[in-house]
Structures
1.
Amino acid sequence: MDALKESIKGLQSENDKIRFKNFNELISISKKEPEILYGFWDIFISLLNKKEVSNKYYAICLIANLIKVDKKRKFEKIFTKFYKLLDHESPVVSLNVAGVSDRIVNAKPYLEPRITNKLLKIDRTSKCRHLDLMKAYVIQAFDGYFKEIRNKKRVIDFVEKQLDSSSPKTRKLAKEFLKKRKV
């Protein structure tokens, strides 16, 4: 437990190298035993408020891994704050919010309509410098929770539009997504 507390403390360090080292330790724990880290939820949320992009990235990844043990519905209280990061100019932040959305929906299917709507609006809301690349992460998220999507037509329409994307990755994922669904 002392090692865990040291890792939590290190994650909050001002030193990038210390933060990174401790993040790697914590992300490994969060994947295998998220319940061990759930008690530190508020610390991870506080990282979302920090200016440094790496803090936000670490928080996004850790929170996404804890969602499946969030029985107290703490995520719902920060939903707006979390998904506001879709509009962040840094691709490190915005792409990863999109990218973890499948984990969130699969753990909390009742959030699907809200999350899908947020992801479908990125053309109008996002300030990301790499919007076309961001759409690849959105497609990956949709692929990861497609069975939960209530309005599949809207999602398929969005993906079809990405067949002409300036991003090769996005075009490739759009093609694979549609082929998988025989569209």
2.
Amino acid sequence: MPTSACPRETIPWRLDAVVAPLEYVEPLDSYIHALKFAGRRHLGRALGELLAETVRAMPAARIVDVIVPVPLHRRRFLERGYNQAVEIARPVSAALGTDYYVAGLRRQRATSAQAQLNASERRANLRAAFAVNRHLDDLNVAIVDDVITTGATVNALAHELKLAGASSVQAWAVARSI
């Protein structure tokens, strides 16, 4: 994510806003890890409600037409049995009274886990990773994910959403590790 700490960064930033209210530190990182890797799906609801509470207070949330969870590749979905971003997005959508789309978005290429990669490796890892197979003409979209670290994942997806016609794209995550 471009900041004053990295003034030479010239990555095209596709997001119109980013909301990630909490720091990815203990005990929150343990909860998110349990959601993703230990099958504790019920944590998605609690984390989603927490995110919704933050977003609801923001004026930018009122202009969102649709929420999209970051898609998992089919192989990772089969391993895990669910997408943690969907588990977070559902309660956000319900709390805000906003539609959410899962169909028409996909992670078309399996990517390495982002956690062990640096910023440039993350961007390269996500090149051509997402596909959007639906028209989003003039819709204001919010991407929902669990954690934003460098912003590479949400930025790559935002690029595809804008190519599909989205008017604006925000990223909403429970936590940030920046």
